[in-house]
Amino acid sequence: MKAQNPQSLKVGLLGIGTVGSGVFTVLARNQDEIVRRTGRGIEISMVADLDTARASAVVGRSAQVVNDARAVIANPDIDVVIELIGGYGIAKALVLEAIAAGKHVVTANKALLAVHGDEIFAAAAKARNGAGVMVLFEAAVAGGIPIIKTLREGLTANRIQWVAGIINGTTNFILSEMRDKGLDFATALKEAQALGYAEADPTFDIEGVDAAHKVTLMSAMAFGIPVQFDKAYVEGITKLGAQDIKYAEALGYRIKLLGIAKRVNHEGGAGIELRVHPTLIPTKRLIANVEGAMNAVMVQGDAVGTTLYYGKGAGSEPTASAVVADLVDIARMSGSALQATPVLAFQPGSVQAAPILPIGQVVTSFYLRMRVSDEAGVLAKVTSILGGADISIDALIQHEARDGESQTDLIILTHDCIEATLDKALQQVEALSSVLGSVVKIRKEELA
Q: In whole angstroms, how far apart are CA 262 and each of 6, 159, 224, 271?
């Protein structure tokens, strides 16, 4: 290979659905620009998909189409394998086989890496007799937003304190519709499905699992810890009521599903908070105004302060943009450069386990809504219980009962406290005869 005229990077693509076709389109359209940036071309020369007719319709005669992914991996001319199959099953086997064959891997599979990332990254480090191969996954988190590269390279001078992001477009669209149109959750979900923002089975999105996969990966890169999806606290948006969104707005907050990774040493304990849940955010924060299916991630570093990254978190070409960016990184690298930028930002030998705090040890502030009898002394009883647990109140709203009704809503915002302490106090609150049913509890973050 001549240095002044390097051979094109040969790429094998596993799966050519929405993102795969976007990768092919972006590469074809921007090939001249890519060559100017890398000094060499990037060529998808082989595509594997069970629907070979569809794949052939996308790539034409520019690439060989097969229905066997292992034929791509076995091809000695292939330098990089792009995995866009998804899931934990065959995708894991194929990624490990590609690594064993000495291929670099680019993937958008956040679920695979969040659950099996440590095994995959270890295999990649040992490949090629210890020389290693790259496993890059910019497309796995926040679509077209280059948050992985930011954590891996742009913010490496910083000790990162916390990361917080709207990293699931489906749930953000639903919450935006609930706020803008006053819809309940079920109606907003149906609208999201009708418009193609939500799958027929939206469980991974609305229950927070997708966001948890993504924040798990970001936590590993922010703090130099192993990927620990099984220790993340995960709570979705299915139980949110339209009235809570209205009350939050009246108090100067908006509710978003946030993925949060935070390095802490507080009265709840020392370690990492790793959690996904609906969160009240002050309306004045930029991230609180991220609407529709858009994504945004905030990162707090000790040197740079707070930074915000915003853009499309899904879609054919935004996600393809991230995949192609990873290909460009590989195309630029020499053999010695492979060790220059560790895949999880920290040198493999310095990745250290840190305790992930259970949700009961988390320290934050809270929004509380309780249905109470419209009678004298209710507020005093509730505040007495909270005060007895050293939980101070930041704000409250007590509505007068409507004509003919004997009950109303009491809304309380607390200052920071340990969640387990609050939960014990709420057990006492719920035992009051004047408190009707369970107390709604939503965490609140100032993100200052």
A: 44, 12, 12, 8
